[in-house]
Specification:
6% helix; single chain; mainly beta; seven-stranded antiparallel sheet; three-stranded antiparallel sheet
Length: 155
């Protein structure tokens, strides 16, 4: 007898306060065309990035503008702060965690000086993506900051 394997669901909350936007609205084709994965964008109202899930920090770019977080089932989230902000080489960013740290939903992971970054001419729109993975069945999106922004169905 065969049993159909049930799918699992992961709820992903916000990584920063602000206005939630469709990823397709990001003025960068890497994000808008979902090359790295699907997700949402947030026009941040402050400079505190918090973990949207319980998980493990898998990557922090040297320039501190991008952070990877993985849950136990190998679903990985990428938080990317701003467009072209890699050019700042970490200026205006402060990390609060290290690679391999376990984090809880709502825990601060990176802070950034929104005004300084914008004064230097960079867009601080922040992308939160579910990295492409063969186990992902679907992603539901919500555009209200007080609810899970992404619900990922996976096998």
């Amino acid at each position: 007898m065969f049993f159909k394997k049930k799918s699992k669901e992961l709820e992903i909350y916000t990584c920063v306060q602000g206005e939630v936007l469709p990823i397709e609205n990001v003025p960068d084709p890497v994000f808008a065309e979902k090359i790295l994965g699907d997700g949402i964008a947030i026009n941040p109202s402050n400079g505190e990035i918090i973990s949207p899930i319980d998980g493990e920090i898998t990557m922090i770019q040297d320039s501190l503008h991008a952070i990877g977080i993985k849950v136990d089932d190998d679903i990985e989230i990428l938080i990317h702060i701003g467009l072209e902000t890699v050019e700042l080489n970490g200026e205006g960013f402060t990390k609060k965690v290290n690679v391999n740290d376990r984090v809880k939903k709502g825990q601060p992971i990176v802070c950034f000086d929104k005004k300084l970054i914008e004064d230097k001419g960079y867009n601080t729109i922040t992308m939160m993506l579910v990295i492409n993975n063969d186990n992902i069945i679907g992603i539901e999106k919500e555009f209200k900051i007080d609810k899970p922004l992404l619900k990922v169905q996976y096998k």
